[in-house]
Amino acid sequence: MRNLKNTILFVITFLVIFFERPCLAQEYKRDFKHQPELATIVRNWAEKLGGELWHFGELVTRRNMVIESYKRTSVVTEDGDALLKDMAEKIKKMMDDKVAAVERIMEVAENKAVMQGDDVEPSFDYYNAKNLFNSAPNETFEEQEEIESNGGIENLQMLRQNPENEYGHGDYQGGMDSYRGVVNSGGSKYNYQQDQSIPESEEKLPHAEHLPKTDEIEVTDGSEQDAQASQTPPVNRRFLPLFRNPHFYNIPVNTNHSAVHVPSNVYERSKEVIKGIKWSEELDSTFKNNYEQDPTLSWQYFGSSTGFMRQFPAMIWSQEPVDLFDCRTRSWYIEAASSPKDIIIIVDRSGSMTGMRREIARHVVNNILDTLGNNDYVNIFTFSNTTDALIECFDNTLVQANLANVRALKEAMSDFRTEQIANFSLALTTAFRLLQDFRERKLGAQCNQAIMLITDGVQYNYKEIFKEYNWQNLPFMPVRVFTYLIGREVSDVREVKWMACANQGYYVHLSTISEVREQVLQYIPVMARPMVLNPTVKPNPTWSPVYADVTDPKLTNWLWVTRERNKQRDRFLLYHRNKTLFIPDEQDRKYVRQQKARQDNQKDMQIYRLMTSVSLPVYDRRPNATRVANLLGVAGTDVPIEYIQRLMTPYRLGVNGYAFIVTNNGYILIHPDLRPVFQGILKPAYNRVDMLEVEIMDDDSEPRDFNDSIVDLRKNVVMQSKGHVMLRVKTHLDDLRRIIISNRHYYYMGINNTPFSIVIALPDRYGFSRVQYALDDDIHRMRSNNMIKGSLNQFFTGNWTIHPDWLYCKYSDDKHRFETPEDELLHFLAKIDKAGWKWSRECDSKLIKSLVADAKMTDWFNQNITTTSTKDENGHEFIKRFGITVAFLSTYSGLTRWQDFPQNIGDRDTRDEPHFHQLHNKAIDEVWYKRAVEQHFIEPRSFVYSVPFDIGNENYTVVTASHAIFKEDGLRKAPAAVVGFQFYESALHTLFTKITSNCGDIHCKRTCTSEELYCLVLDDNGYVIVSDDRADTGRFFGEIRADIMAQLLEEGVYKPNRMYDYQATCFRSTDTGNPASRCLTPFKQFYGITQWAFATLIYFIKSTWANEMYPTYEPDQEEMEDPHVVDEPPFKSNEKEFDRRLLINKTRPETCDQEMFLYTLGYKNTTGEAFNRSMSNNCTRPFIVQPVIGSNMILLVINNICLPEPKAILMPDPQEVDYNTSLICYRVRHDAYPRRNYMSCINRSIHEREIELCGRGTTLSVPFVLLLLMLVIRAP
After folding, report:
1. Strands 448-455 and 341-348
2. Maximum CA pair distance of the chain?
3. Alpha-carbon gap, residue 950 to 698, rounded angstroms
4. CA distance linking residue 585 with residue 564, whole number of Å
5. Which of 244, 505, 660, 728 could serve as 480's disulfide partner, Cβ 3.0–4.6 Å?
6. What is the pLDDT of residues 1020-1038, one digit of tens each?
7. What is this structure's pTM?
8. pLDDT over 80 at 180, yes or no
9. Where are the beta strands (DSSP E) in 620-679?
10. 1153-1171 per-position pLDDT tens digit
11. Where would I find the VWFA domain in this sequence (predicted)?
12. E strands along 620-657, which residues?
């Protein structure tokens, strides 16, 4: 009945509007003919709105006082080549120091291994990082329990800052707290227990009386009493005093000891492992000496070929959610252990490779792929009677073993089918020919080559094939052959083992999945033999590509699946709580908003720490009775990316300038547009981002049709040439919602003895100009001339902050701790004040001097604003009327000052939101700073206004306004500072309504308060700043009126700019069924039919007697009184329809390319005509548009009587690019860009033929009882 009433009401309303609207339109047209002055009225509105905003902005930011403060400064020109050279030298010096530290570890390790004995006590104990407990007296676990009870896991995570959460050198030292934050970031409002597949991360400690006593900690070096200086270790090796160290991101560590990690697949008490752990304890003194010589060193480590890894300083290794870490599969180990390699994996897919054998083969392939890096090339072929590439578009080629290609190969391995009989001749011939082709054409790795044969049996040794392709230049063989025999019931291993032994390879027999990892890794020492046998040839230090230390890339899918489980759970809980409120589409939109808000607040990278590592191989120099070439392991250290960024002196690059580093493969190591994280989870191929994919030319080209100019620049950069070029490029801002198009100067050069090249990009119009403070404002001149009284700290009062990522002053050791960067700065300023101060590398003297000068010149900003707007309105009322919440000033030296206006904050204090200075403390790196500087060259006397995207009519929405202050010195000018303020959108809406509802001296019948007119203000990118309908705030105007937006484009008011995102993440629907194969026996077929019949019967019963079996939902009293509860559910409670709406669409993240169209205001010569036109009488141009002076906005007044016309425009929402093939295949076919072979190639030795060891098999022992029984049965 209620639905019928609603339907009738809707029909009546439609008929009234349908018949009445033409009458209204005719009346409006008659009135409009008598109101030709509307265009003048709209122009007056725009001028008045702009004038009031500009006047208010000038007063509240005290713009003129800021200009006066910088009057005594001058403008100097920065030399691009000199800046680049200085930056490269600093980075080179730092990298040389890290290499020297690793070389010392390598030399000591080789010497200590020679001196080791063969006898190891069975009870030998060591610091096992996975079993360590913290015995430091100040690190009490009662504190943790208190935090858990008061704030839960998230607060504990913030306090503890566990290894993976903050920083550790291995990809997976992770903390479950981090993962909880990632997988639960959708936010559950119901306080239900999380998915039980996520194990608890909190370890229970032994009882307190078992902890070592405090007096057992002995200080022997006379230094301050700190547990990190403890020289006498506790007796029990399970306990070690660990203290939080700011140098290691507040992780509890012990800088006098190292700890050992043993992978889960390695038996930690085996003889070889224990022997290595024992002699490697001698490395502790080297670790400590390195750290004392270079306090900037991060984690140091030695990874053994037996699997264990010794890491300094010691820390507790978190094993949550699962410990997948094995140092031998990390890029720093793999690339140092052997020279680059081309690998072809050929997998037997004959009919016998089914069931468990197929699964073992898949695991073998996956583990081989895990040992490859960006400098290696690989392909997989499966063979039966034919030999085919596993991925069709990979046929007849080898692909770079980057994360994207490796992931594609792994996924393809789960789909291959077994059939027919294996043709080994064809498979081997195909592999040898392809490798020969790459050798002759000098493609691929251009060093080692190998074939990995995975099969369950070979009946013939195919000697003639090896003779033709591999034995032409004996004793040297271009290709090694590694064979993996799979299955327990293998009758003959002779031929498959001979293949490996005759071709300088290695043979492995596998019968269970559990032994796959350890046996596959046996091939690495074999590939390293030429390096071990050529001791006089030293390999180059290996630098790894950028990687995130928090997690293994394989966990990306797991984390995403777990998050979707939690999302699905929340939807079920919401439905069961209140069915009438459950709207799936609304829930999905809410989920997306939650993710975006969480990204903005957490900045994604709080969980992940990006780094690169430098490593060197460690050889076994011990004498042996028989010829061997053992690789002991790899020594290395980490270099955090943020540490390199500090050496790139970003303050000298200025606003909208940046520097980046490119590897020998053309991939990005450091770049401001490197975005490795999506919604808190690492992207599937986060470190395979090419330079071409972040530097986008402004040439309107098709996706991945890269301009020749940028391709040439990439080639020069990769080849470590030195030069300079200017290009016109597009740069996105604000989460790919805005765009800057400008000319940039690129200066580039190589960093010697590394795979890296450095590039700086400077804006053409202002990138070379810098503000130079007056000589009287120099720190020492002020002191020597007695120009100031008191300390330098007097200039740092009130509300202020500095750029948190810049290096102003910092102790190189770990003995000084500060709560904030501001506290650290004040400490050093006090030291600078003292007599005898000398600048050292602890401080950037140029940055500190600029900062102090800025602070001195802007010290007045802390004074209250007392200026009045009119004689009748005092300052307090003036501020209240405009709803200002904060005014701020930010300088090029990273200083940000602000002033709060508590009279306008009101109830907002009670909301748990970060303050302005917590969100916007990065000065020249803030979006409002960058946009203000660019706006200066469009309209110098203007503010840039913005609101949060898609914010709608939410309460307490703030508008941000910013304005750039330039210092002009003759013909030169440089950005000195940016001033701005934030005020409530509601106050702006009130002002907007007041102005547009009054025609002034002109007689008018209709204003923006009339139903016939729809008025709104748009920013320079087409987003609504303020509107008659506040629900439109923050929306892209094309979503509201596409027809009007299309006309604005035609008239040149806006200009579309095509932009690409080559780091995008798209989502593919996943099959929720079990991918495992199964044998359909008659019993299983009968079971399936029975199950179907039973399910059909249950469905029939539920459909027929649903009302009797399941009572109708009755809301309780509270829900009945809730005004938000709607009367009817949004859809019928049909069970089948309910299931479809309630279940989420399960997906998996994939790399993809996306394109979007971002809009900018047209140039003045194209918009002038549009601003002079009036509204037409016949709805052909149903709008008037005028610029809002002194801003980046336009006022748009629309004839609301004219019905919207269906128009399709290009939207700023990202859309996936369709290449008519997969992105992986498209890259393989088109991305043939040059790379530089940086790594040493040592791939042969005359002595290798003397090595006899070439394989091992699974030892199968027959039980004695079974053997005796067989003898009895055979007895006559």
Report:
1. parallel
2. 127
3. 28
4. 16
5. 505
6. 999 999 999 999 999 999 9
7. 0.84
8. no
9. 631-640, 658-662, 668-670, 677-678
10. 999 999 999 876 666 688 8
11. 342-524
12. 631-640
User: Which candidate, 889, 963, 895, places its Cα nearest to that of 932?
Assistant: 963
User: Can you say how many angstroms the Cα of residue 766 is from the centroid of all Cα atoms in its chain?
Assistant: 30
Residue 481 CA to chain centroid, in angstroms? Answer: 38
Identify which of 1204, 1198, 1194, 1179 has the alpha carbon closest to the alpha carbon of residue 1010.
Answer: 1198
Exposed/middle/buried for residue 489 (C-beta within 10 Å: 0-12, 13-18, 19+)? exposed
The alpha carbon of 513 is separated from its chain's Cα centroid by a whole number of angstroms, namely 33
Pairing between β-strand 239-240 and β-strand 631-640 as defined by DSSP bridges: unpaired
Dihedral sign, CA of 1112, 1116, 1117, 1122? negative
Least confident of 322-336, 430-444, 610-624, 1061-1075: 1061-1075
Query: Which residues of 272-422 form beta strands (DSSP E)?
Result: 300-304, 309-312, 341-348, 377-383, 387-389, 399-400
Q: What angle do CA 497, 499, 503 make, to 5 degrees?
A: 120
DSSP string, 692-726: GGTSEESS-PPTT---HHHHHHHHHHHTT--EEEE
If one counts every other C-beta atom within 10 angstroms of the C-beta of residue 605, the result is 16
Phi, psi of 71 (to 5 degrees): -65, -30
The encoded tokens of residue 95 equal 């990298």
CA dist., res. 232 & res. 238, Å (int): 14
DSSP letter string, 74-94: EEEE--HHHHHHHHHHHHHHH
* Phi-psi region at 736: left, alpha or beta (left = phi > 0; alpha = psi -120 to 50): left
* Measured distance CA(513)–CA(365) in Å, rounded: 12
H helices present in 294-402, as ranges: 331-337, 356-370
> How would you list the strands of the sheet with 1215-1216, edge to edge?
1054-1069, 1147-1161, 1215-1216
Residues sharing a CB contact under 8 Å with residue 709, sequence separation 6 or more, in sequence order: 697, 725, 727
pLDDT per residue over 16-34, tens digit each? 444 444 444 444 444 444 4
pLDDT in tens, 1217-1239: 999 999 999 999 988 899 998 87
pLDDT in tens, 1004-1017: 778 898 888 999 99
- Cα distance between residue 1059 and residue 673, in whole Å: 14
Closest-CA residue to 682 (of 1063, 184, 188): 1063
Q: From residue 910, give the alpha-carbon distance in Å to each of 902, 906, 914, 920, 953.
A: 12, 9, 11, 20, 19
Question: Angle at Cα 632 formed by Cα 630 and Cα 636, nearest 5°?
Answer: 140
Distance (Å, rounded) from C-alpha 659 to C-alpha 925? 13
Amino acid at 1185: V
Q: How large is the average pLDDT for residues 859-879?
A: 66
Environment class of 314 (CB within 10 Å of its CB; exposed 0-12, middle 13-18, buried 19+): buried
Q: CA–CA separation, 514 vs 516, rounded Å?
A: 6
- CA dihedral 876→878→884→886, nearest 10 degrees, is -50
Place of tokens 């997969």: 1222
Beta bridge partners of 945: 961
Q: CB atoms < 10 A from the CB of 1048, how many?
A: 27
CA distance 791 to 852: 11
Tokens of 722: 């030195």
Give the number of other CB atoms < 10 A from CB of residue 828: 19
Q: Looking up tokens 């019993």, which residue turns up?
A: 1083
Return the SS3 of 780.
helix
CA atoms of 165 and 315, how far apart (whole Å): 13
Closest by CA to 751, choosing from 543, 601, 485, 966, is 543
The Cα–Cα gap between 287 and 312 comes to: 7
d(CA 990, CA 987): 5
- Which pair of structure tokens corresponds to residue 308? 């264990």
